Structures
1.
Amino acid sequence: MSHDAFITKETIESEESGVLDGRQVAVKDNISTRGVKTTCGSAMLADYVPPYDATVVEWLKGAGATVVGKTNMDEFGMGTTTETSHFGPTTNPVDEERVPGGSSGGSAAAVAAGEADLALGSDTGGSVRCPAAFCGVVGIKPTYGLVSRYGLVAYANSLEQIGPLAPTVEEAAELLDVIAGPDPHDATTREEGEGTDYAAAADGDVDGMTIGVLSELVSGADEGVAAAFEETIADLEAQGAEVREVSLDSLAHAVQAYYVIAMSEASSNLARFDGVRYGVSGASDEGGYDGNWNDAFARSREAGFGPEVKRRVLLGTYALSAGYHDKYYKKAQDARAWIKRDFDDALTEADVLASPTMPVLPPKLGESLDDPLQLYLMDANTVPVNLADLPAISVPAGTAEGLPVGAQFVGPAFGEETVIRAASAVE
Amino acid sequence: MSETAVDPEAVEHVAELARVDLTPDERERFAAQFAEILDSFEALDEVPAVEGEPDLVNVLRTDEVSEGLTQEEALSNAPATEDGYFEGPPVG
């Protein structure tokens, strides 16, 4: 059964040998692959063929992996359902009437359907964890700076990280070991990723670990989701973990802060798509250009961008424009600093913080697209982590109404071992 | 409702700043959606001023020549080129 997980199916063999020998890895279509189309789910880049590999792709090959294709995604990573892709939606392998989550929905569906052993996604506000939760697989959002973003087509640089998706915590950790580490091509990468052994941390031992349950994010969840999550936490308590409630005032503003920052960065990042160096051309059909650069630029972007991308670029431009910068952008940066401080404080009292990954069960296809604000609110549990630059994992935590529920564990900066250990005890 | 006024003309103005042409239908639809979304952003008014990260500073590294894309590779995705250059619309 095909779930339209891939935009491009193409086998890229590795000539080297390593820990990923014989493993088939699917790669999200916003991660550059030399000589293989990388569309970002957009008409703008429908024919774009990168002349170079992203660092993570180079490292996958270096570890012996076979890349099996480029996976479907919300256009430029903007979405929570993988329905905004120019190439049509992906369906959820667990229930084909439902969305796989987004924006790395193709990557999660490929793993859930067994069309790939492992996959790479990117997480700007939950885009690895959300589809992992909806499809019943494991997804990790690494600490900001752990994984190189060189060759990742940027949407909101200050928030996004490339992360692994896999059927089990140990396999996800193994893939993270391969892609983590400093890269001279990305000045935001840090030394902490060098020589890691995250896979060894998946030992299921939570005896003595302190888990802080984020009460605001549990009370905001649907009943069935909250029940499955609470059962999971009770099970960890039975395994020797100490559980306490944690309440963070700043969380109430996370979604708004996230969208203001992400849209502002998007409006700036996507300015490069002008139809001259790449992208849909604003030139008239007869050849040559009508009007000046601005006219051609605006026509190129009208033709190349879908509605969600236009919506975010315009709102981002608005939030950064004279008179509104202080009201929206500056306030959002204050909220970001507040959230960061709240998380850092909470993580001095607890080893990890826990919540349901998504507050809802996977919606049916077409059910949620008409109301962008409602869709944005679905990201309440995942976006705080990106604002705070912290690592988080989503692990399958039972079901509600026969659909997967994910539990999220958040750790301190570069505390990947701890979140991996906590998640492995859930399996 | 707040005083956030977003009419189709305001949307058109932002679209011009962002260099994105819109259809009349998009203008109408975005106006309604923007009012609702910007309204929700008003919640940020309640955020206290927080001491954030220290200001960013420039960190310089040595300029070293290394291998990059060839001219042919750099031009490989351009819709139009001429004599080894990108071809763009007229300026001004």
Note: Residues 6-248+344-425 of chain A form a domain with the Amidase signature (AS) enzymes fold (CATH 3.90.1300.10).
2.
Amino acid sequence: MNMAEGLYRTMRLIRRFEERAIELVHAGEIIGGIHPYIGQEAIAAGVCAALRDDDVITSTHRGHGHVLAKGADPVRMLAELTGRATGLNQGRGGSMHAADFSKGIYGANGIVGAGGAIATGAAWAAVKEGSDRVAVSFFGDGAVNQGVLLEAFNLAALWRLPVLFVCENNGYATTLTVAQAVAGSITARAEAFGIPAVSVDGADAAAVLDAARDAVARGRTGGGPSFIEATAYRFDAHHTWEHKARVRYRADEEVAAGRSRDPLDIQGVRLDAETRAGIDADTETLMAEAVAFALDSPRPDPAGALDHLYATGLRGRDGIGLLDTAVR
Amino acid sequence: MARLSYLKALQRALADEMARDENVCVLGEDIGVGVNNVTTGLLAKHGPLRVVDTPLSEQAFTSFATGAALAGQRPVIEFQIPSLLFLVFEQIANQAHKFSLMTGGQAKVPVTYFVPGSGSRSGWAGQHSDHPYGLFAHVGVKTVVPATPEDAYGLFLTAIRDDDPVMLFAPAGSLGVRGDVDMDALGPVPLGVGRVHREGTDVTVVAVGHLVQSALAVAEQLADQISVEVFDPRTLHPFDWDGLAASVAKTGRLVVIDDSNRMCGIAGEILATAAEQMRLTVPPKRVTRPDGAVLPFARELDLAVQPQQDQLLTAVQEVYKSSR
């Protein structure tokens, strides 16, 4: 499979995964809702196409795209979102914590900006081991105001660690615009620490891939961290809850203009129509399987609600004090 | 038997583990020069990839350790003051601690968070003198407070080898403690196993950290009137409830002394568990810092807030008398 097809296939998978997931939210099969990634697919697809299986990523609360692009099984991922025992995390993580450590996916993360320092530590571990693995931290424009992320930039630059910081600038931190939230420029935050920074069109997967390849090559060869700001438009809500709350913060015209640059079309026109239709059909089949698998999968046993709380298997006391006659 | 100081025991434990396992590394502020004397000599021996002097970036280097641990390292972080833990509560309680469960057991985070000098160091005032171990026990992070040199050695070893995040509080009041130790018998001490330092039949005194020495002094002082059993939990989570129950079964009376704040503190948890599940012949007592205390600067104010040996003595006498 050539790279143009691969990028499109990844994006198509993310898009259809998200659309099916939104249906399942509305059907009540996914509780808690999701943060849709629709419109930003080219960023995950482009960056992860530059990575190896053993490279590491940390993701965000809007993490489905990153997790899928890095190679997690979409079938088990959907089972995770529907809270099934067969899910990637055995139903313990859900949308905001989906992870697959066998693919270097250190998980989506519910705290904005939290993954930056974790990825930096993973990059340091690679250097300490003498490996040329790299780590990538995805985060949104809102995260550049989090102190811990800026501290992580400093450590990564100071110690020339192979970490790639990818800021997905979708224009909004929940409902607050970048103009309302970020003083100065986003790339300047990285440049202030001596980290090479570029801005790319985050709707164009090929452009993202080019930038990511440069950054990853720099990381693998001891050149230290890199920063990519990828601008994109979030087509859907910050969270599926928004539709119920009827929150309004974007003009219809703005949303229409944003949606007019669909990353799937931008990449899709680089393929012949037959190839594109074939990928679309494959994706439909895969997602139909995923939905069926998820909904047919068993739910976790409540008796195991605190399984895995400790890696060592430690069990604490239960919470029923008076009724718990055994001293444990 | 050789004399071993608590501080030297900590230093030896870290040095031994770093020599034994190349994945063990240490990071923190001013550790290259060994400002607390625990990391002294390690930089020269192991180099800057295993002894990492960090910038003042507590939040970043705490999650940095999480990332390194997820990638197979076993980092030890030395925090120079206990209050820095308030800065990194997100990184420990909400990130490191939650990885194992949230990933369905895919991830483990073997990081040791180590505070050599927790609690009052006399004259360090409000922002350098807390003992926030209860916070970590509450959220479920394994939490250890050794009281003696051999326990400091053994529990530090165990903390580093544990596959989960572990907090290790070395009370400032313990750092200078020296004891006669059989060096050949030094070895790992399991988490969740308390220690009876002195057997007794009338009153169980549970003492945390450096207060074990106060409890032993009180027991000695009262020896001809009241038989005091001194129980040191050594780890606050997991807690040795069986060990405590065995002691209370003998004495039926309980006093807890703990140098952290009263409200929602570990002493309250010990009393509550004893009340629920053990046979107490009289109401228990606790000697702690006051509710919500902030340690004042002046020596007499500082001491006024910390639980004192004479307060423990009075509490033990009252608990003993009330049952006669």
Note: The mean pLDDT of chain B is 97.
